[in-house]
Design a protein that fits this description.
Layout: H1 18-29, H2 39-46, E1 52-55, H3 71-83, E2 87-90, H4 96-101, E3 106-113, E4 138-145
The structure holds S-adenosylmethionine.
Length: 152
């Protein structure tokens, strides 16, 4: 549910649907575990050969969140992923340092609309951001998989 944020469009919150929405959310989350831990701790806790992780870390070079990643954090994450015995898919902005740090993994280009990189909170000067985050809120994402784990 995303209540409207401005006057240009009506709120999507319909009070008449609230009870049904809460029931649906309850059903959807009934068997979900929510952790509030650093991602490295979550990986350690749940990693198994059959585990599949979807990782959506803060974007490289952009401070859009209360908690952001420094370059060193990406290096630590890359080392953790290289050692672990699970599979993962990670979306991240297209930046030369990202390609370097995660260069050992398979990558696939994908486009998707995003608002995060266009956030006024981003502290990296526009000219220094990667080309992909500067126009039309489009961003090139990199998907990374560890294929060796499929082999057994
Ligand atoms: C790109 S956003 C993910 C958004 C999320 N996938 C969603 O759809 O709401 C990156 C998130 O990682 C969080 N974060 C920052 N440092 C983290 C850490 N060490 N471990 C786990 N999450 C972290 C940020 O607070 C931010 O919410």
């Amino acid at each position: 549910m995303h209540p409207g944020k401005g006057t240009a469009q009506p709120s999507k919150l319909n009070i008449l649907d609230l009870e049904e929405s809460i029931i649906q959310i309850h059903r959807r989350l009934a068997r979900v575990t929510i952790e509030n831990l650093p991602c490295g701790d979550v990986i350690q806790r749940y990693v198994r050969p059959q585990t599949f992780f979807y990782l959506d870390p803060p974007y490289y070079g952009i401070k859009a969140y209360r908690l952001n990643f420094e370059p060193k954090d990406f290096e630590v994450l890359a080392q953790t992923l290289a050692k672990m015995k699970g599979r993962f898919l990670m979306s991240l902005n297209d930046h030369k340092e990202v390609r370097h740090i995660f260069g050992g993994f398979k990558i696939q280009r994908s486009r998707c609309a995003t608002a995060a990189c266009a956030s006024p909170a981003a502290t990296v000067p526009r000219a220094e951001r990667s080309r992909s985050v500067t126009t039309n809120r489009d961003q090139i994402l990199w998907k990374m998989y560890t294929f060796h784990l499929f082999l057994g």
